[in-house]
Amino acid sequence: MKISKTIFAILVSGALLSPAAYAIPTLTLSDGIAADTETIVDNGVGDSNPAVGIVTFIGSLGVFNINMTSGLTKPALGSAAAPEIDISSFNNATAKGTLTITFSEDGFTGFPGTVKADFGGTQMNGNITNTVLQNGMLVTTIGPLFGTNFSGGATGNLTGGAPYSLTQSVVMNFAGAGNKSFDAHVGVAVPDGGMTVTLLGLGLAGLAGVGRLRQRLGKA
Predict the structure, then answer these.
(1) Cβ distance 19 to 85 under 8 Å?
(2) Dist. CA 14–CA 166, nearest whole Å
(3) Alpha-carbon span 40 to 26, nearest angstrom
(4) pTM beyond cutoff 0.85
(5) Which of 121, 128, 130, 156 has the fewest CB atoms found within 10 Å of its own CB?
(6) What is the CATH number of domain 5-189?
C-alpha cells in the first residue's frame, strides 16, 4: 500500500506528539523550517486567547505573513468524556510553501467511541489535507482536497483504551501566493456516554466481592 508524502509526514509528526509531551492543549504551526516553528500551549507565551481550552496564534511565519489560527478543546469545547477538538484558521502566503498546523490534547476518557471528522473551507491554489490521530496513530484522513471551495468528512474507531490523546493536523500546500481558510472539527460519539465500560468494571468488581464473601462464609 502506497502512502503519500503528506500523510507520511503527518504520521511521523503524530508519533512525536506523545501524550506525555503534550499534557495541555498545544497548537503548532510549522513551514518545515525549525527556526520558524511556533509551538503554543494553552495560556502560554504566544497564546492570544486567555480562555482555558482555546489556543490562538496571530502572527507571521516564514512566507506566511498572516496567520490567525485557533485550536479549541475541553473545557471550552467538549469534555473528557465527550471529546471534541477543533481548528479554525486563516493563512496567507506570499510565495510557494507548505504550512502544517497541528492541535493536540490528551486526558480523554470517552471510550469506546467513533471518531467523526468534518473539514471544509476555501483556498486560492494548491491543496489541503486533514488527518486525525489517537495516541499518534492514524484514525481518519480527508484529502488532499483541491478547488476553491472544499469539504469532506470521515469516520474511524478508537482503539486501545482510555485515557488517550487526540491530535488533528492540517497540511496546506500553496502553489504560489494566496490564502486558505478552514474549519476542522472532530468529535467522538461514545455509546451511552461510556457507561458500558464503567458498568462492566463495576460488575467485575462486584463479582470479585461476592467471591471473597463466599470464601469467608465457607471458612466460618
Answers:
(1) no
(2) 10
(3) 6
(4) no
(5) 156
(6) 2.60.120
